[in-house]
Amino acid sequence: MFRRARELGPPILVPLAWTFVTAAHLEVVTEYTLFIAHVVMAVLLVGFAATGYADMREGVLRTWWLLIAVGSVVTLCGVVGLWLEPTNPALTAVALFGWMLLPAVGFVDTRRRVTRGGWIYAVGTAGCLLGAALYAVGPTWGTRTAAVGGLVLVGLGQTAGIVDAAIRY
């Protein structure tokens, strides 16, 4: 059961997470709701890392296991940042930019190792990097449209990569 959940969970959870983050930026959900989402995500990531370690010790799976382990810490930064009063923007930025950029490392490694579908991982990498850059410059443009566009790019790029991996491998 855990193996199946580890295989099929990410293609559902990745787009859900980015949709949720985008909704938070649009003020559709509250900061407290975002805090709860981070707690849930931290628990899922730690559980995924703990139960998946035996199956993820070699090759590209090892890269992804390391990213999940680091991502657990990044997510915990978000938990603490959202828990503090007032919210700690440095810790929440670690969580946000960490999850924008960590998967790009995995996509680069995956693209290097696969024989088919490498272009999908290139698209995933580009979505992560361009989305993070667009999000970062958003405040200088005085509009949240750029930030939301950046989140959408990241979400689409990461979703493409994880869905391909779940279907193909």
Automatic annotation (TrEMBL):
UniProt entry keywords in alphabetical sequence: Membrane, Transmembrane, Transmembrane helix
Transmembrane segments: 33-52, 64-84, 90-108, 120-141, 147-167
Keyword Membrane: yes
Protein's UniProt name: Uncharacterized protein
